[in-house]
Amino acid sequence: MNPYIEIVKNNFQQSSRKTLKECLYDAFKKTILLREIPAGERINEKEYAELLNISRTPIRYALQELTKEGLVEHIPKIGTVVKGISLADAYEIFDIRKALDTLATSRAAQLMTPQDFFELKELLEYGDYLDRTDQVDLLLQNFTDFNHFIYHKSQMPRLQSIAESLREYLLHFRDVSIRSADRRHIALEEHWQLYSAMMQKDEKTIKDITSIHLDHSLRFILQEMEKRQIG
């Protein structure tokens, strides 16, 4: 049996908010981003459909979307082949996000009202509660809400649009890192440090903490990418 099909199956999570084809696309993308399917591996639609017990239509949809993103490519007379993501790609993605987050957070800190800071603090306190009670799925959403709040308060819609283009890559990376208890405890503490720096409107500290926060995430992800490779 093709071992990669079993990995895609394990990464497949059905959701009431998404269609089957979207959930399958997420599973393929997560598997490829974490290099659990190596570059050069052929994806046979028929084989995946039979072993996953689904039609070829959602598989075809997933591969079309992944082709648009450059994660797979169609090679004549061979079929769909994984291009994947390299360690250099991961570094680039996190470097871009570091610059965007620093700008958004610094701008938000200057513009936020006392009520805004109160609401951000409530988000952080709720995140601590979710962590203590081990509600990881809700904590993942809380992390997303925290980031969205800051970008919204930066009042820079074009910056937010640019950040959204990286969101799908980062969501899968974050899903892996935050499911590690040690990493999410540290990430929450870094969010509190960022909140404190924002309260003081300390741009240097904001930049430093943002850099440290994303460097920690990147280091964890690189380790996971190395560990999850097969063969």
From TrEMBL:
Query: Which molecular function terms from Gene Ontology are attached?
Result: DNA binding
UniProt keyword terms in alphabetical order: DNA-binding, Transcription, Transcription regulation
Recorded superkingdom: Bacteria
InterPro entries recorded? GntR_C, TF_FadR/GntR_C, Tscrpt_reg_HTH_GntR, WH-like_DNA-bd_sf, WH_DNA-bd_sf
Which PROSITE patterns does the annotation name? HTH_GNTR (PS50949)
Segments forming domain HTH gntR-type: 18-85
The answer on whether this UniProt entry bears the keyword Transcription reads: yes
Q: What is this protein called?
A: DNA-binding GntR family transcriptional regulator
Q: What is the lineage of its organism?
A: Bacteria, Bacillati, Bacillota, Bacilli, Lactobacillales
